[in-house]
Amino acid sequence: MSDALFRFATAGSVDDGKSTLVGRLLHDSKAILADQLESVARTSAERGFGGEPGAIDFALLTDGLRAEREQGITIDVAYRYFSTGRRSFILADCPGHVQYTRNMVTGATTADAVVVLVDARNGVLEQTRRHLAVVQLLRVPHVIVAVNKIDLLGYSEAAFTSVADEVTTLAGELGLHDAHVIPVSALAGDNVVERSANTPWYAGPSLLELLETLPSLDELETELEALRMPVQLVIRPQGSLAHDVDDAERFRDYRAFAGRIASGTVRVGDRVQVFPGGATTTVAGIDAGPRELDAASAPQSVSLRLADQLDAARGAVVVAAGALPEPRRELDAALFWLGNQPLRPGARVLVKSGTTTVQALVAEVVGRRDLDSLALGPADGLEINDIGQVRVRLAADLPVEEYAAHRRAGAFLVIDPQSGATLAAGIVTAPVTPATGDAGSISTTRTTTDTEGVAA
């Protein structure tokens, strides 16, 4: 059994059966409480679902909001926790409607895998392409395409192959390699938890089997990436943590940096650097609550005791010595615009990276992605659900990296300084110029703004 928590999201076009698939997955993996199942069964019977006694509308297990139940659609991201004998999961059931694409971005940002549903009768649709484009830009490690409602086509191998070929071609165009394609029936349960006898021509795993065996991002990155821990809190409890005389002595001069390890592993005796300042010191101790550890890895939350008394606060970042990225005052970034009001050059915003928030100014809107081709075209601004390229100037240095190299260190949020609302999810990219556009050329005419006066 893998100890790493596995996060996955579901996405797809309207009526592809996402909520039904998730409900079936939870039901068949025995992750539904008896009283919840009884309530869903009662509601299903009241609505005459399925036309047969005892038929259950599995979509009701995830459509938690009253508006969702009344309209029969998914509006918000529904998070569910469940576990099997092999792994623990956090599942995000994302909306399919185009106006809720921003919710899908929210669910996919931290996902180890995204399950994209395609109706076997309709094949790839515009929203399918949109979701796969988001998955590609977010660099989600694993992509699973579930070709749903295969039962309505008589479990036809030819029908599945046709859709699978279409999906594979699209995935290749978007740069999504090793996408897994599975024929399923969410309603009947074929290939969701157990392999189905109705698809003898399919030799691959069921959806759950695949989710249980794919490596999580934490497993992939722990050994490959250097230590990085954003500091959430500097602990100076003095005697407040003491439980006895020995503890009182231990905690008299206690000082530690607490946070969640974003990547890598730290051990007692390791040399580390602390941003800002770049001072180098040694890890003198690692605490997880009352326990002292010899080592800790992502995604554990720990407190690091350092050999030297460094002046740092919330927003600092502890990294392996020699691995401190070059701090930046300007970011080239892809933005997933979530705000109801359009983004225009000159907008003053807040940028939140890890535990650090700084004032910023959107200096330039470079372009907007065409979701049919992912090519970057000219744009004067970004509207809700647009995916665009911008240049942002910061009021203070941030130790960020390109998202392609470090998924967590390269992601940030754009926040409205007045309301505190989240306006966009962003990822740091390489600069895009009219001559070398990274997914297509753009016009040499751009909209820029004077950036003088950004608050320091």
UniProtKB/TrEMBL annotation:
<keyword id="KW-0067">ATP-binding</keyword>
<dbReference type="GO" id="GO:0006790">
    <property type="term" value="P:sulfur compound metabolic process"/>
</dbReference>
<dbReference type="GO" id="GO:0005525">
    <property type="term" value="F:GTP binding"/>
</dbReference>
<dbReference type="InterPro" id="IPR054696">
    <property type="entry name" value="GTP-eEF1A_C"/>
</dbReference>
<dbReference type="InterPro" id="IPR031157">
    <property type="entry name" value="G_TR_CS"/>
</dbReference>
<dbReference type="Pfam" id="PF22594">
    <property type="entry name" value="GTP-eEF1A_C"/>
</dbReference>
<dbReference type="InterPro" id="IPR050100">
    <property type="entry name" value="TRAFAC_GTPase_members"/>
</dbReference>
<dbReference type="InterPro" id="IPR000795">
    <property type="entry name" value="T_Tr_GTP-bd_dom"/>
</dbReference>
<dbReference type="InterPro" id="IPR027417">
    <property type="entry name" value="P-loop_NTPase"/>
</dbReference>
<feature type="compositionally biased region" description="Low complexity">
    <location>
        <begin position="444"/>
        <end position="456"/>
    </location>
</feature>
<dbReference type="InterPro" id="IPR041757">
    <property type="entry name" value="CysN_GTP-bd"/>
</dbReference>
<dbReference type="GO" id="GO:0004781">
    <property type="term" value="F:sulfate adenylyltransferase (ATP) activity"/>
</dbReference>
<keyword id="KW-0342">GTP-binding</keyword>
<dbReference type="InterPro" id="IPR044139">
    <property type="entry name" value="CysN_NoDQ_III"/>
</dbReference>
<feature type="region of interest" description="Disordered">
    <location>
        <begin position="435"/>
        <end position="456"/>
    </location>
</feature>
<keyword id="KW-0808">Transferase</keyword>
<dbReference type="GO" id="GO:0003924">
    <property type="term" value="F:GTPase activity"/>
</dbReference>
<feature type="domain" description="Tr-type G">
    <location>
        <begin position="3"/>
        <end position="221"/>
    </location>
</feature>
<dbReference type="InterPro" id="IPR009001">
    <property type="entry name" value="Transl_elong_EF1A/Init_IF2_C"/>
</dbReference>
<dbReference type="Pfam" id="PF00009">
    <property type="entry name" value="GTP_EFTU"/>
</dbReference>
<dbReference type="InterPro" id="IPR011779">
    <property type="entry name" value="SO4_adenylTrfase_lsu"/>
</dbReference>
<keyword id="KW-0547">Nucleotide-binding</keyword>
<keyword id="KW-0548">Nucleotidyltransferase</keyword>
<dbReference type="GO" id="GO:0005524">
    <property type="term" value="F:ATP binding"/>
</dbReference>
<dbReference type="InterPro" id="IPR009000">
    <property type="entry name" value="Transl_B-barrel_sf"/>
</dbReference>
<protein>
    <recommendedName>
        <fullName>sulfate adenylyltransferase</fullName>
        <ecNumber>2.7.7.4</ecNumber>
    </recommendedName>
</protein>
